[in-house]
Amino acid sequence: MVNSDSFAEYKTHDMKKFFSQLFSDDNSINEKSVVGFLAFVMMALFAIADIVTGYLGKDLVINEFIFNAFLWLVLGSFGIGSVDKYINKKGSSNDETVE
What we know:
Elements: H1 4-22, H2 31-55, H3 64-98
């Protein structure tokens, strides 16, 4: 049987390693995608909560500017990430043809 203390310690170490890699300058994680995904998850949770409370006959009041902030975060993060990939792909193909 697995010791729960060692499992929790292992997971804590993994999370610390992930966050230290996330904030490192030379990482393979796209921070814009992480922020966009988290904002998308929040929007999805708002939508699910709104549907559930509507089904129960209650009104879920979410300020429009909060939802719009998450919307702009998602659009901005994924839009900037897509443009960045396109520019880097285009730039790398131009570098090869110039030589």
